[in-house]
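PROTOCOL LOG
Step 1. Enter all chains and additional molecules of the complex.
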Amino acid sequence: MAAAFLQISWRTAFSRLKGADPLLCYALGAVIVFGLVVLHSAVDGNGPLFRAQVLRLLLGVLALAVAAQFPPTFYLRWAPWLYFAVLLLLLLVFIGGVTVKGAARWLELPGLVRFQPSELTKLALPMMIAWYFHDRPLPPTFKDVVVTLALIVLPVTCIMMQPDLGTAILVLVAGVSVILLAGISWRWIGWATVGGAALVPLMWYGLKEYQRQRIITLFDPESDPLGAGWSIIQSNTAIGSGGFFGKGLGLGTQSQLEFLPESHTDFIIAVVGEELGFLGIVSLLALYMAIVGRVLFIAAQTHHTFSRLLAGALALVFFVSLFVNIAMVAGMLPVVGVPLPLVSYGGTSVITLLAGFGIIMSIQSHKSW
Amino acid sequence: MAPSLRIKDRHAEHKAFVSRALVLFAIAAGMALVLVIRMVQLQVWQHDVYRTRSDENRISVQPLAPARGIIYDRNGVPLAENRPIFSLGLVRERIGDLDRFIAELAEVVSLDRDDVEGFEERLMRRRRPFEPIPLKLSLTEDEIAALAVNRHRFVGAEVEARLARYYPFGELMAHPVGSVRRVSDEDLGGLDPVRYSATRFIGRRGVEQFYESSLHGNIGSRRVETDAHGRVRRVLDVSLPEAGQNITLHLDSRLQVAAVAALSHRRGAIVALDTQSGGVLAMVSNPSYDPNLFVSGVSRGQYNAWLNSRDKPLFDRAINGQYAPGSTFKPVVAIAALAHGLVDWEEEILDRGSFRLPGGERIYRDWSWQIDDSGGQGIVNLNRAIYRSSNVYFYHLGTRLHIDQLAETARQLGLGRVTSVDLAGASPGLVPDPVWKRGAKGEPWYPGDNVNLSIGQGDLLVTPLQVASAAAVIANRGRWVRPRMLLASDGPLTEADPPPPMAPFEGLSPEDWERLVNAMEAVIHRGNQGYRQNGTAWAYIGRGLGYRMAGKSGTAQVVEIAQGEEYDEELLDEYSRKHAWFVAFAPADDPVIAVSVLVENGGGGSSVAGPVAREVIDAYLLPRIARR
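Step 2. Run joint prediction.
Step 3. Record the structure below.
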């Protein structure tokens, strides 16, 4: 019985993947391969590090394949449960979290793995908001907006207090994207923008000292060339010195001689810029935009509100994370810990990200149900 | 409640979503375009700027310090050499809790407060990230081993090897050889910044100072590719440094050791010159200091102790100690009087032990009055006046001489001026004359000044080096050789040209010279002649001499407590006692060595300084005689 069941699910799984959107698959595959090539250069032949990332990607692809097996109705049914479970985990981080580099972000299952509940929130939150909207008439009413904003603020506050500003921003974007896609009126968006701008000075006082320093550094990296400004100066130097064609793979002096900090994690786009040049960055950016566009296209083709909002939100989070990362490395935004999706070394992010694409593929194969 | 009555219009919602998605994608595409424009700015427009900056990042020119020239004594024994030493530096960026790290490190490496304070001071200065900051300057073998074993515990602690100056003789040679000391900010003003860019130590005092530029050598450099941690990844090209010149000194380390032993614990100085060349064979100033401490780093406490010590270990008495010469000046007075025809060897004077200037009140006494308050030296001629050291006889000569004649002769014999070739910072001493006295004291020259001067007292000041050098001139019967340290070098040295040779002392006949030397021989060798008939030094050093020695004792009054010292009842006694002098050369008929000995507050010249001088000359001559 069990064997037969397994056989059947294998077959359906295979057919699902076969039916998966080819353009999205190719673009994802290309970005992953591109990322591995650059990472191999950035870690300078550090085998264990490279293998760890390959393993992580394999796990991510597995997560993608598994996530693609469940129909969108499954996610719809479980969305609220997942949301509150994640909220609980976020609170657990405060009680029993593991502190790394001064921030408590990790939960440890003894003997198993360490993972960041905040990463899971990037999926759970848009699912929750999309669940909230799925049977309500759209565009959302004022009350809907207030409720959904409350649903967003809860996890975002938890994550900010860890503190992990980068992830908090992305989670916020994930939630707000759903509201935007749900059709909130432009007038409200305008007011929200004005209000947000007014809050900027207040936020300044809410920031931690190191976060303020990063913002100061953004406008004047030379003010502290050996301290906070070091990363920006070195990353700009890396990108700029790469020129149009780059210095060649493995030949980037900024990254190979370790002038570039975090060259295999958050700052890996600088390695792309230095070693593969303008062409490398633009190619990668084109692949990213292809993914974003394709996912939005898939969303637009979908007939169910939940699927549509979820897929669209995931596309927007994906874009915002790559934009924030590249803009920060290029010295246009303050340094916040946002990895370059699918390329940066590390963490839970690759797995949750690919799981998210699994959900998108599920949505794609269940356009109407 | 109006909104809740609305019906879900799926078609309209879909349309609304599509338009939203399109708008948001357009915004995203616009933002992506902004990124592309930024990349064009960085990678195309400003590419040259950043390429230069990236090259500056990785390529640096490292100066390569030349190895300092080695200093040898005349027998080829190294007096100053270079040894690898291992210093410990910390890379701050690799260390978390610095205080705990240092505390744990202190279990393996001995660290004192000075080390840690110096480190913290250096930590505050501007530096490159990942540059190791020196914590301890020299590690012992055991400490290096212990660090190696515990390497895993001390990530961020780096041991660096380099060549450092080493003085195998330690205190024994500190004064003549000098030492290197850490280049200070003041030094940097006067140094060629390129040539000294890799140099951490500079010669101070002695030979190390005088021959600094030859010993230093020429700097090399290499262009290297370094990583952000300052570690060299690749050497692009190298121009090797040129080691400093090795130099050989006249110093004889065996004689130096013997001289130090002869002076023992007493404060004082010894200078031994090779009368043929003027080479300094031995030069002692006691107490001394260990010059190696300046290399490993003198603690503040130690340095202050040296500075504040009443015994002044850092002070080189041999060339900077300026003392009244006492009776060792008498041969100079004799030479002046002989040269100006104011005396001959036959003239006799009755020495009753006291002298009074015509019409004067003050009574000037012979040295013997304190001993047995009687009679003086009796009938005295120049010969007897020298070997008995008759003050009264020289009072007479002193009043006969015009002060300018005496001062002129003293200067011709090297007093009151620097005659040495290459002794860094040698003091000139002082030969007083009316011009000087008017200027310095605002007083005229009195006949009494002549009287004081004639027995080497008054304002006259000489250094042990000058006394030895004057003795060498007498030993050479008027022929001058300038005192010098350098015997030989690998090649020509860059230091300033040596001063021109000194003109020989004219004015004395060969016979005068012989009689003068004979009188000085009698100081030591004339013995068993009965009461007041022996040479002043015979009883102390004249017996059992295997060669002929000529010499003169001196006992100089310490007139006043030296400047800058506090009145201290307990110490006053010792530090206000007379200085003991002895000057000698040997063999008398064909001298090879001239020696001056000064024992501060030592008491009698013959009894205290005499035996020291003999020990030094014995140590030099006896092996030579035995070899023959």
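Step 4. Note key features.
Residues 560-570 of chain B have pLDDT under 50 and may be disordered.
The first strand of chain B starts at residue 59 and ends at 64.
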